[in-house]
Amino acid sequence: DGPFDWSEPVQGMILSCYFWGYLVSQIPGARVAESFSARWVMFFSVLINVVCTLLTPVAAKMHYIAMIVMRIGEGIGGGVTFPAMHVMLASWAPPNERSVMSAIVYAGTALGTVISMLMAGVLAGTLGWESVFYVMGGLSCLWMVLWLWLVQDTPTKQALMSQEERDLITSSLGTSSSGGHSEAKAPVPWRKVFTSAPFYGILIAHVCNNWGWYMLLIELPFYMKQVLQFNIKENAVVTAIPFLTMWFFSMALSKTLDALRSRGKITTTIARKTATFIASAVPMVCLLALCYIGCQRGLAVTLMTIGITAIGGMFCGLLSNHIDIAPNYAGTLMAITNSAATLSGIIVPIFVGQITHGNQTIGAWRVIFYVTIVLYVVEIIAYLLLASGEEQPWNKGDKPAASVEAAEAEATPLNQKESKQNYSAQDQ
């Protein structure tokens, strides 16, 4: 129904190829962010996206292959953002505020989705579809200026804050307020990472949860249009609302969990498992119900809204968990799990395109929903059994025991400190 006569498989290819670039840039981007500067990694990632976004209208008119190249470029730029932000959060977020700060950062993806969907509909309807890319690219240029002006890698480099606030953050993280980290980071202990049960808990949960996330984020508009027969204006509003409610829910849940942790009512492990369970069990139930309600549009929209809203629990659940178990390598751990989870982003559009090609029926979509339900079950079991909110011994790297003990004497590990506070509260 547009200027480009692209088949559903081609559309799926264009959507999924973003994740090809996204996949290859994450681990290199994380290592650069941890070793040099997460601030500059973020800046250049957005710069790449700006260039590709502004060139997208031209590429689309040339050939769908040119469009694929632009999408891959956007993926390369976008792939480093989560690892770089994890490095920033590990350097900035006090342990008892980590859930809230992580939710604020990552739930921005939901809020950005709402704004983009609504803006895109208005811009395309008034100024033409090309204006969507030009406006988004222009706004990103403004963001780049603000980022360089307002953001620094660590509190010690930030002049736009009081010394009291700086001392509060650095003391809670066990770092020095007059310099960088209290000790240099050791090389990544790869063997210990890949033999860590908590790491695999995050990895499995991330892969399974992202399948549901990408399926709903990318394919929801197609389902609304092809099966529920929403017109384009209704589609924009209906698909945007769940991401707005997701943002509010993630804020409320993260604040609640951090408040309970700070009072010693629950541990970090319980907080992360609770949030992740909500982010998987609720969407799973909603998808199961969608399989049997037919074309009742009102009920379908309600279930989708509830399911997508609940996914917001992942921002203060599994997506915060890397920083808990290994703050020194949070960016690298995020890059590894997010790279694996990105495979879902590559597979989902192709999978849905193959299932629904010439077969836009409720029966076809039931197959898609059933597969997603099974993966949610796997996520729940794996995360509840394997995940932990405690800092792992290998966070200090492959160092001799004596040097680790010396470092611990200088700065108590965050989660051990939290655990002691929790036990003290329980004793009282």
UniProtKB/TrEMBL annotation:
Low complexity composition bias: residue spans: 401-411
Protein name: Putative sodium-dependent phosphate transporter aedes aegypti sodium-dependent phosphate transporter
Region of interest (Disordered), ranges: 392-428
Amino acid composition bias (Polar residues), ranges on this chain: 413-428
Chain ranges of the Major facilitator superfamily (MFS) profile domain: 1-391
GO biological process: monoatomic anion transport
Lineage of source species: Eukaryota, Metazoa, Ecdysozoa, Arthropoda, Hexapoda
Location(s) in or outside the cell: Membrane
